[in-house]
Amino acid sequence: MMSEIGTVGIVGTGTMGTGIATNVAAHGIAVRLYDARPEAVRAAIDQAKAFWAKSVERGRTTAAQAEAAAGRLTAVDTLGGLADSDLLIEAIFEDFALKAKLFEELSGLLPERTLVATNTSCLRVSELARHMKKPDRFLGLHYFSPAQINPIVEVVRGEATAPATVEAGLAFCRATGKKPITCKDAYGFAINRFFCPYTNEACRLLDEGLATTAEVDAVAEEAVGAAAGPFRVQNLIKPRINLHAIQNLAPLGPFYAPARSLVEVGEADRMWEIGQVGEIPPERRALIRDRIRLGVFLAVLQELDEEVASPADIDTGAREALRFTKPPCALMDELGRAEVERIVAPAIARYGLKRPAALDRVGRLLSG
User: Fold this and answer.
1) Tell me: the pLDDT tens digits for 157-169?
2) CATH superfamily of 7-184
3) Would the pTM count as exceeding 0.85?
């Protein structure tokens, strides 16, 4: 395993690939960019330069630093132009067949020493690794948007990922100013595992006629300390994309099935209409708060049972990636086991779920 990563290849220069390239180049690492559409690579480099220009205007970096970062970005015309990469990051469309075909092609081009990472947010890393000649050198590096500035990266270990590969991934993330969290290869990984049910439960409240979008957003800010409520956040990331992420959690069971209104809005590629919020009666406010917390708590308890990630890493992701000032494990510890069980028990009964064993650790999740 190489001691350090000096050159990074990136395949796919959409929103995420561009953001990753911008972050990596700003931290002194050479970046090779490839996309099947050459114009997309040119656009990515222009966007990175525009990002650094704004940073100069705001006094966050110097003109010399911006110029040096831009000089580290190089467009390549073929996948073969990435063969000198110490680390290759795939950031193409979330389609398993497309990614699998790419990794098979890369396996014949890259030297065995190269680390290969997928930026997938919803596909199984272990299944993608089966299309690599060296699955022990393969891992997930799931960045959060905007990747230029969001500090969290989920470092996902597949079934065949070597411990040294995970350590190299963690070191790379830290060297590029990120706060990595390690997690098992599970549907939704550590963060989307509860973010998706959080937004989905908000939509179910709407379906059941229990609250408006504005009311849910207002109460969510109180319930989990969200900087923006679930409907406003969905409009930022697009309901269509959120629906796709939730649909990929289907193997986890009916609790994760997408709400009717989310399917309608997402498939139509519309945005949520969010009006003004009026006075919310205390009883309705309490009901909304419970349901919002239910979406988060039950998913987190289940992933703790599955040892997907540690309570501390889950809370770090909630604070840093999602801007929850009341991260789930700390909030459950504060509320206590009896209160958390009261909140999640109706859904456990409704969906015929096994009672999470992690419920018995509530109150000491972060200290036990």
Assistant:
1) 999 999 999 999 9
2) NAD(P)-binding Rossmann-like Domain (3.40.50.720)
3) yes
